[in-house]
Amino acid sequence: MTTSEAVTGVQIGAGVKAFTSASGAIGKIRFLDSPEEVLDFIGDTDVESTVVISRGGTTTFMSPALMAGVAGLITLQGAPESHLGILSREFGIPCVMSTQFTEGIQTSRGETIPADGTTVRIDTSGDTGLVFLADADD
Hints:
The protein has helices at residues 3-6, 35-41, 63-67, 83-91; strands spanning 11-17, 24-31, 50-54, 72-75, 95-101, 105-106, 112-113, 119-123, 129-133. By secondary structure, it is α/β, with parallel strands linked by helices. The two termini are 13 Å apart.
């Protein structure tokens, strides 16, 4: 997927891309903020169609979600050399790190993120990782 193909929606975030073999993903957002939430999530049937959001790139409790085969990963902090950046590359999961969102809801810590269930497209084909709102039919 090229950047021009990915721009089917409104850009709502950008960050540092982690270097993966995949160029992007489409899925419904799920914010995972604790080990318990991750363990509950990996038992769901929609894991492979989910783009998960994690607060930080060193959040080691996210590892089971990556091993379960999520469609993509977005972090609010971190760098490609951080724990989740390395794991996303090794599992071939598109990842955008240190993402700043322009639209969405507020977390308990005041960060802006898309609401759970929002369909997004992440694009890691260019120099910057991008997050777009996507049509539910994409």
